[in-house]
Amino acid sequence: MQISQITRDTLDVTLLGKKPGHKYDHGHALVLSGGPGKTGAARMAARGALRIGAGAVTLGVPPAAQLEVAVQVTAIMLERIPDGAALADVLKDNRISALCLGPALGLGARAAGLVKAALAAPSVVLDADALTLMSQDAEICAGLHPRCILTPHMGEFARLAPDLAEAAKAERPSAKAWAAREAAARFGCVVLLKGPETVIATPEGHVRRHCATHDRATPWLATAGAGDVLAGFITGLLARGIDPLEAASMAAWLHAEAALTHGPGLIAEDLPDLLPQVLRALNVQAA
Ligand SMILES: NC(=O)C1=CN([C@@H]2O[C@H](COP(=O)(O)OP(=O)(O)OC[C@H]3O[C@@H](n4cnc5c(N)ncnc54)[C@H](OP(=O)(O)O)[C@@H]3O)[C@@H](O)[C@H]2O)[C@@H](O)CC1
Ligand SMILES: Nc1ncnc2c1ncn2[C@@H]1O[C@H](COP(=O)(O)OP(=O)(O)O)[C@@H](O)[C@H]1O
Fold first, then answer.
1. Could you tell me the distance, in angstroms and rounded to a whole number, from the CA of residue 129 to the centre of ligand 1?
2. Distance between CA 238 and CA 37 in Å, rounded?
3. Residue 52: predicted pLDDT
4. Distance of alpha carbon 168 from alpha carbon 179, whole angstroms
């Protein structure tokens, strides 16, 4: 199995530069929020999507959480999305170019309806609770497509594919990469399997690896919500029209780079606001 390492040298920095155009030319990302008291994860993901350059980002909230979210966002827009039918309606707006759902979404009927409706979006990041729901419902698995990206941590991966999670733990080189590749083939979409070693695989069998180890070690990324921000970074890049493998790879590198730039003491909500510094250091220019 061939595995490409994701490094500074493999990043196509030109993809991060913006061409002339208006905000919708840079994509509109939609991030779905959970209910009252559970909105922080989606708000962090949405901020990540906006900072990485999506032209517009909207948080889809259940009506009961609208006030809680409204008082905590400014550039991010808000839309009431009570259920799957409402999401299907919102997705008729073909300017919405990517959707993220799962962070603190919940596991009830609303969340299950949203996950099913979400698969109609052009590009979809399924994280956290969306993955747990997927592991319980074959209908969701059947609706996955190549512009979906699953972003499990090992706990979520064990629910999605217990056999592959077991194999990933084997004491052989590239066991985790092999498991991600099998999962991508099984589900017919991109799989980004998280951890200090993050592996990304496509249904066609491409495998990439980012190692946050040695000189890129960032153990302080093991902090609640860091994965929610990563999901937002990927969503923002997808919204901008970048292809799923490239979006996942760039997001993984930028996420670790932001953590390295900050150092110890990092909390998840710092990550989006570290991006301007990281992009400046990469010398990202207007395209
Ligand atoms: N600020 C917010 O609003 C935040 C909200 N959040 C939201 O909280 C919800 C619950 O999400 P969650 O990830 O904490 O819990 P869950 O899905 O039950 O899995 C956890 C279990 O899996 C296992 N496990 C194995 N390997 C693992 C690994 N590498 N990383 C992590 N776990 C690993 C481990 O079992 P163990 O290894 O301990 O036996 C562990 O007990 C979800 O909606 C999420 O979006 C969070 O994003 C945080 C910020
Ligand atoms: N020890 C570590 N070193 C480097 N990166 C880590 C480490 N632990 C976790 N990460 C990264 O931090 C993020 C954690 O995501 P996740 O487990 O989904 O947490 P949460 O659900 O709290 O957001 C992932 O991107 C993962 O790759």
1. 9
2. 28
3. 98
4. 5
Looking at residue 236, what is its pLDDT? 98
- The number of residues in the chain equals 287
Contacts of 247 (CB under 8 A, 6+ apart): 149, 234, 237, 238
CB of 257 within 6 A of ligand 2: the answer is no
Please state the pTM of the whole predicted model. 0.98
Which pLDDT value is given to residue 287? 81
Residue with tokens 């698969």: 119
E strand segments, 71-121: 77-80, 96-101
Q: How far apart are CA 226 and CA 255, in angstroms?
A: 9
- Has 41 been labeled as part of a binding site? yes
DSSP state, residue 18: P
For 49, the 3-state DSSP assignment is helix
Pairwise CA distance, residues 229 & 221, whole Å: 11
Provide CB contacts within 8 A for 40, sequence distance 6+: 104, 225
Question: What is the rounded distance in angstroms from the CA atom of residue 23 to the CA atom of residue 26?
Answer: 5
What is the DSSP-derived secondary structure letter of residue 159? Answer: H
Of 131, 242, 239, 138, nearest to 192 by C-alpha is 131
Task: Please report the pLDDT score of residue 168 as a whole number.
Answer: 96
Ligand 2 centroid from CA 137, angstroms: 26
CA angle at 270 for the pair 257 and 105, rounded to the nearest 5°: 105
CB of 196 closer than 6 A to ligand 2?
A: yes
> What is the rounded distance in angstroms from the CA atom of residue 283 to the CA atom of residue 110?
43
Domain range annotation of the chain: 3-281
Which stretches of the chain score pLDDT less than 50? Answer: none
DSSP code of 241?
Answer: T
Q: Domain 3-281: give its CATH code.
A: 3.40.1190.20
- pLDDT at position 185 is 98
* pLDDT of res. 173: 86
- For residue 80, give the H/E element and its range: strand 77-80
